[in-house]
What we know:
Number of helices of chain B: 0
Order of helices and strands of chain B: EEEEEEEEEEE
Radius of gyration of chain A: 13 Å
Number of strands of chain B: 11
Mean pLDDT of chain B: 90
Largest sheet of chain A: 7 strands, mixed
Helix content of chain A: under 10%
Distance between the termini of chain A: 37 Å
Low-confidence stretches of chain A: none
Largest sheet of chain B: 6 strands, mixed
Strand content of chain B: over 45%
Helix content of chain B: under 10%
Mean pLDDT of chain A: 93
Number of strands of chain A: 11
Order of helices and strands of chain A: EEEEEEEEEEE
Number of helices of chain A: 0
Oligomer: heterodimer
Low-confidence stretches of chain B: none
Amino acid sequence: NAGVMQNPRHLVRRRGQEARLRCSPMKGHSHVYWYRQLPEEGLKFMVYLQKENIIDESGMPKERFSAEFPKEGPSILRIQQVVRGDSAAYFCASSPFSGNQPQHFGDGTRLSIL
Amino acid sequence: RKEVEQDPGPFNVPEGATVAFNCTYSNSASQSFFWYRQDCRKEPKLLMSVYSSGNEDGRFTAQLNRASQYISLLIRDSKLSDSATYLCVVNMKSGGGADGLTFGKGTHLIIQP
């Protein structure tokens, strides 16, 4: 049973470009969560999605960041017009249900902005 | 007050020793609690859930004290492979059904041979 799959593992972008991060949840999981870990910091919740719905985006920056989880295909975290401060590790997690369930994490995408 | 607070360490512990970490959380309405482990900035891996009655998994024991709002993790007979950062994680379940987990910054454990 494949775990949470994220790609790419490493992504390099220049300032002003767009970054697209992909996440396929574990088989049977319909709840997806995105987290960001800045250097020397803990993980911070960004957004929680179910298929075709954003349930909670309270942790998303107001501008340049968006997320989707379409009916078919992986969840996408999109960062437009990237800046140096966007450099971080972005982790995706999934769970089979909402509520008091542990979440299982992917390997993460390390985003570096030149 | 930080939402989830941990002593960052590092804790330097000889192999075979017992080590304990605590973690405090700010939201008394928090619903669920976990310990995760993170190695060298890799992905967090679930170590164990924490239940009100306390629970044990091999050499690891977790306790929850809701009245004092703290969680503990005890590692017995520590192994070199236990060296990692241990993350205290809380589902604060604020209104609206948010299920994002709140992470502490982690406690760094180094097991020395």
